[in-house]
């Protein structure tokens, strides 16, 4: 079976390919589908999705709910991890530390970023995550902690 990253590279080269990949990605991890995520980018050390400001993602004040934002952050991290995890290894999330910094009153661009050094420090890998409004304001920022180990 092709890797998630190989599938992304193949599909993203096609018209509507990212949309197709996004549908497959949320089918593999159905909870991500609940936030109606849109996959923007996937490559080693970077993942990016958009969480839309829509009624199903809103809280009582009409902004993107904090948990929908965290859902987007975890999806971005998952894309990054699938593209970055060394061959013969697996990754599992261990925890998430986030701070809510501002109202999320537009679509959110959720990004996850690492570097080579953070993956060489394993088995603990810290992934920096951030959700940004359309005006560039960071609304959620934090770290997702991964456990990266050899496959058995």
UniProtKB/TrEMBL annotation:
<dbReference type="InterPro" id="IPR027961">
    <property type="entry name" value="DUF4442"/>
</dbReference>
<protein>
    <submittedName>
        <fullName>Thioesterase</fullName>
    </submittedName>
</protein>
<dbReference type="InterPro" id="IPR029069">
    <property type="entry name" value="HotDog_dom_sf"/>
</dbReference>
<dbReference type="Pfam" id="PF14539">
    <property type="entry name" value="DUF4442"/>
</dbReference>
